[in-house]
């Protein structure tokens, strides 16, 4: 059997609880199948606050367009965060001077 390089299970799905389908259906029912932002047909269940809180209170139904806008905003926030400063890389032992060896 030829194997594809693609894994059928999306990485995000591996992070979701085992009863995710039930939780998702509950959110869809609670929000009457409509995007809570614009009222269009809802397709995506969105986490309101970041993290691993999969409680129904932290979830809402969005249409694809509103979800993409939200995801883009989150990405923009990540880009605006200050970059981490790393310590300078160590010099290769073959290039060290005697004073660096201390």
From TrEMBL:
Coiled coil: none annotated. Residues 22-68 form the HNH nuclease domain. Keywords: Endonuclease, Hydrolase, Nuclease. It comes from the Bacteria. Residues 68-102 are annotated as: Disordered. Residues 78-90 have a biased composition (Basic residues). GO terms for molecular function: endonuclease activity; nucleic acid binding; zinc ion binding. It holds the Pfam family HNH. InterPro entries: HNH, HNH_nuc. This is HNH endonuclease. It comes from Brachybacterium endophyticum.
